[in-house]
Write a structure and sequence with these properties.
31 helices; mainly alpha; 3 domains; globular
Length: about 650
């Protein structure tokens, strides 16, 4: 019987892999989106990954958070070693990781059902585990995760967390159930999974908390003679990383409070107050998926300003807290329900906690929802359900989910069609409208793009809307004064758009080429507005980056001395070895090697090359560059060229 159940589950695993492949295969013709560019462009930052030095610099180039996520960053090397690159290999690897994760969810569900429902026949156990896994594997919410390349951070972290849970279950069998075999390999596998998961994305730190959820719900209580061994394992393997997670959150708290004031339209307290509503919205998307739930645009989700603003805030908080308490109190009576619910809440403990993130994103459900369908599947395929009806419900449910996801995957496989679909579904999302309008800019069709963004002219100015409107009107040959005024107000008031504004202003000569005589005046007006933004002025690095843009304008106008003074002041305010080198090279390219050498000598020092002190991957990369001598070599090469250029000019005959 056991052998036949194992053969059955092996066959079901193969069927699930084929189903998942069919479901998401249309998305493999998709393209890069949004954060893909910022995270993948580092593949080409050092001329491609071609040797040990460029490999080390690439692995330390992660920008997502303090960890840099080097494991996830390293995984992109399977797909490309330079940038720009083709999206196909990235998408295929993403799908492969998702399918492997599905098999890991199946293995975990199979083992947990063995603990929670030992009286159930092995065959039924295999069917319940497979149905629960299928619902997770082909759920329409995954259509927004698998084809979004940068979400490999989440899928890889989830895979390692699942491996860690399986390793803990193997260790648990040897500790509590006295199954023969060595314990230390499984303990080592657990620690390795924890490390790899955390270095893929910080949600990996939730692994010990998720293990405690298993112990609180489905794992059997140890016999008295085995309890001490289990407590020792927990003390060594679970509590230290949980304390580290607590310390991480405490250390992040001051920065989260301050950055919320500067970068968000809501405080950290308002973000936390909004999370019960967010969690209930996630549950609705998971249990009652609707078209468009997989979209990346949640900026229309309004934060809670108080317990009754909106009125759903207090009921949502009572419902979430009450449900969590109820599941805890009944965890031994209804273990699978408690497992699914507490696993879901624990899986959101970090990204719905005191970290300065945006209010919501669908991809955050990838790990928390891994066991959500287990109790539902157990009821559908339970002994009280007629076999024919159970089979019909299971087949129809999986078929509907797979067909819906397949349809969404076809959209993800056509980037332009996807943008237009999102624009139609989310008229209240500025990001959705801007994303669609960028395609109108790309294809030089300003009229539909202007119609999309017309309603936003009457709302609070936003940088992304303003700059896209200017792009569109410029395609028509001129930017109207009301649009330029909207752009000035956006760049002088918006909190969040500094990086976007700097990137646009750097590219403005190319972007404004259709505006002809108006181009210089538009770029100047927007730059002055950005320089006057009080929120951006609080950040020395943003002031410095805007100063580099302004200096570039002055160099184009032949005002090299003014450009030098602007850069000199900006680098004095916010020193940076990389920016010093880039700014000096920019001045030299403009035909002023004398000023370039003066700037380089004024702002270069061994201490600057050593980089800033502190924690995080950015500081680590600076230390790595110091150890490798990268910046010192770049400085020596640039200075040598400048000196040679000046000597060559002096040796030229006058007149």
């Amino acid at each position: 019987m056991v052998l036949s159940a194992r053969v059955l589950i092996a066959g079901l695993a193969l069927a699930l892999a084929v189903l998942g492949l069919w479901t998401f295969a249309p998305a493999l013709s998709g393209d890069f989106l949004f954060d893909d560019y910022a995270n993948l462009a580092t593949l080409g930052s050092h001329g491609g990954v071609r040797d040990l030095e460029s490999l080390l610099l690439y692995l330390s180039s992660g920008i997502a958070d303090a960890t840099g996520r080097p494991v996830a960053v390293a995984s992109f090397l399977f797909d490309a070693r330079d940038w720009p690159a083709a999206p196909g290999p990235f998408l295929r690897t993403n799908l492969a990781i998702h399918l492997v994760n599905g098999l890991l969810v199946l293995a975990l569900a199979w083992q947990l059902l063995g603990h929670a429902t030992t009286a159930v026949a092995p065959t039924r156990r295999a069917l319940v585990a497979s149905l629960a896994t299928a619902c997770w594997l082909v759920h329409p919410l995954q259509a927004g995760i698998v084809p979004y390349i940068v979400q490999r951070h989440a899928t890889l972290a989830t895979g390692f967390v699942l491996l860690g849970l399986l390793a803990w279950l193997a260790l648990h069998r040897r500790l509590v159930l006295e199954q023969p075999g060595r314990r230390w390999p499984w303990a080592l596998a657990f620690v390795a999974s924890l490390g790899l998961a955390t270095l893929s994305k910080p949600i990996g730190l939730l692994l010990p908390l998720l293990v405690l959820v298993l112990h609180a719900t489905v794992l059997p209580l140890p016999l008295p003679q085995r309890a001490a061994a289990l407590r020792r394992a927990q003390a060594w393997l679970l509590w230290p990383p949980m304390l580290a997670l607590g310390a991480y959150l405490l250390l992040q708290l001051p920065d989260a409070i301050e950055s919320s004031r500067q970068l968000r339209e809501y405080s950290l307290g308002e973000r936390l107050l909004s999370q019960p509503r967010v969690l209930l919205d996630y549950l609705r998307r998971l249990l009652l998926p609707l078209p468009g739930d997989d979209a990346l645009f949640v900026d229309q989700f309004q934060p809670s300003r108080g317990l009754l603003t909106p009125w759903t805030t207090l009921p949502a908080a009572v419902l979430v807290i009450g449900a969590g308490c109820l599941m805890w109190l009944t965890r031994r009576r209804w273990p699978l329900l408690a497992l699914a619910g507490l696993f879901f809440l624990a899986g959101h403990a970090l990204e719905s906690g005191p970290v300065n993130l945006e209010l919501a994103f669908p991809h955050r459900n990838y790990l928390p929802a891994a066991l959500l369908f287990l109790p539902i599947s157990a009821v559908v395929l339970g002994p009280r359900m007629p076999a024919a009806l159970a089979g019909l419900i299971a087949v129809v449910t999986v078929a509907v989910l797979a067909l819906a996801s397949h349809q969404q995957a076809r959209l993800w496989g056509n980037a332009e069609a996807l943008a237009m679909d999102w624009s139609a579904r989310f008229p209240e999302s500025a990001r959705a409208q801007v994303h669609a309008a960028t395609w109108d800019v790309w294809w030089s069709r300003p009229e539909p793009g202007l119609r999309r963004l017309a309603p936003w002219r009457q709302r609070r100015p936003e940088v992304q809307v303003a700059l896209t409107l200017i792009d569109l009107e410029c395609l028509q040959g001129a930017v109207a004064e009301p649009t330029l005024d909207y752009g000035r107000r956006a760049l002088s008031q918006d909190r969040r758009g500094a990086n976007l504004a700097v990137a646009w202003l750097r590219q403005s000569p190319d972007r404004l080429i259709s505006c002809r005589q108006q181009a210089t005046a538009i770029a100047h007006a927007l730059l002055q507005a950005a320089l006057a933004n009080p929120w951006w002025q609080r950040n020395p690095a943003q002031v410095r980056d805007l100063a580099v843009v302004e200096a570039g304008r002055w160099l184009q106008a032949g005002r090299g001395d003014a450009a030098w003074r602007r850069l000199d002041a900006a680098l004095g305010l916010s020193p940076s070895a990389e920016v010093t080198l880039a700014a000096s090279a920019m001045i030299a390219t403009a035909g002023r090697p004398d000023l370039a050498l003066a700037l380089l000598d004024a702002h270069w020092s061994p201490g600057l090359a050593a980089g800033p002190s502190g924690r995080g991957m950015a500081a680590m990369q600076h230390r790595l560059k110091r150890w490798l001598g990268t910046l010192v070599r770049e400085h020596a090469a640039l200075r040598g060229k400048l000196v040679a250029e000046l000597e060559a000019r002096r040796s030229m005959p006058s007149g």
